[in-house]
Amino acid sequence: MQNDPLKPGYDFNAHLVAGLTPISKGNDLDFVIDRPNGMKGFIINLTVKGQGTVFHGDESFTVNEGDLLLFPTGVPHYYHRSEEAEDWYHRWIYFRPRAYWINRLKWENCINGVFITKGVHIDDQEKLELLFKQIEELSKQDEPYSDELTLNLLEQLLIRCKMNQPNLIKKRVDPRITEVLNYMAKHLNEDFSNEKLAELVCLSPSRLGHLFRDEVGMTITQWRDDQRISRAKQLLVTSNYSINQISRLIGYSDPLYFSRVFKNKAGLSPKLYREKVM
Ligand code: FCB
C-alpha cells in the first residue's frame, strides 16, 4: 500500500480521486498502466499533451490532446505513452457514479468496453479541462460539502461529454434497469430483496441480476451499498445524527455491518471520516 495514486499499489477505496499523470519518455511514470480486471469505479481520462496508446495488438488505438476516454467499472485498463510521442499527459478522475447518472455514462463510440470521444470542439476542450482541474483541487480539500461540490462539478463534466456525442439519444440503458435504479434510489433505506426488484420489472431474479451486471457493471448489492455509503458520507458531515442513527437511516439495521461496508468502500471508519472532515 502506498500514497501516490500515480504509482502501482495505490488503494482506490474512495468515491473520488483525481489527478494529472505527466508521462515523459524515460521518467518514473513511463510505464504501462495495466489493470486486467479494471477498477471498482469509473475513470474518465482527458489527454492534455502528447499521445497515449490504449490496448495492444489489433485492438490498440491512440488518443491525442482533447480526446476523452471513459472506463466503466470492471473494464480492463491497459495504456501508456505512445512510442512515437515524447509525452503523454493526461488528467483523470476516478469516481463512483451517482444513481441517476447512468444514461450519461454511455457514449457513442466504444472499443472493448472503453468509451471514447474524439474531435471535441476547442471551446469545449477548454471548459472540460477547467472542470478536470477544479475537480482535482476540490477533491483534495477535506471540508464539509467539498465532496458534494466535487460531484456537482463532475456531473457538469459528464453532461458536457454527453453533449459532445454525435448522436445524443442513442445508447440508452435498458428501461427496466432504469426503473430498478430509480426504485432503489427512492427506497435506499428499506430492506428490499432482489426478488422484489425482479417482480417490479417482470423478470426472474437471475435474469435481472445478469442484465443489471451487463448494464451497470456491478451487482445490485454492490450498487446499493455504494449509494448508501455515499449518502452516509453526506449525513456524517452535514448532520449531527449518531453513527447508529445514520446506519438505520440509510437502511442498515446492523450498525456493525454498516461500519464494515463503510470502511471497505471509504477506506476508513465512519467515525474517523467524520472527524477528518469536521
Ligand atoms: C494512475 C494513472 C491514471 C489513472 C489512475 C487511476 O496511476 O496514471 O491514468 O489510471 O491511476
Within CATH, the superfamily of the largest domain carries the name Regulatory protein AraC
Q: Are there runs of 5+ residues with pLDDT below 50, and where? A: none
CATH fold node name of the largest domain: Jelly Rolls
Order of helices and strands: EEEEEEEEEHHHHHHHHH
What is the level 1 CATH name of the largest domain?
Mainly Beta
Q: Structural class, from secondary structure content?
A: alpha+beta
| Average pLDDT for all residues | 91
End-to-end separation: 26 Å
Shape: globular
Which architecture of the largest domain per CATH?
A: Sandwich
Question: For the CA atoms, what is the radius of gyration?
Answer: 19 Å
Describe this structure as you would to a colleague.
By secondary structure, the protein is α+β, with helices and mostly antiparallel strands. It has two domains: 16-163, Regulatory protein AraC (Jelly Rolls); 175-277, Homeodomain-like (Arc Repressor Mutant, subunit A). The chain is 41% helix and 19% strand. It has nine helices and nine strands. The chain has helices spanning 122-139, 146-163, 175-186, 194-200, 205-216, 220-238, 243-249, 255-266, 270-277, and strands at 16-24, 33-35, 42-54, 61-64, 68-71, 77-81, 87-95, 109-111, 114-117. Strands 1, 2, 3, 4, 5, 6, 7, 8 and 9 form a nine-stranded antiparallel β-sheet that branches. Strand 8 and strand 9 form a beta hairpin. The longest helix is centred in the last third of the chain and has 19 residues, at 220-238. The protein is globular. The chain binds beta-D-fucopyranose (FCB).
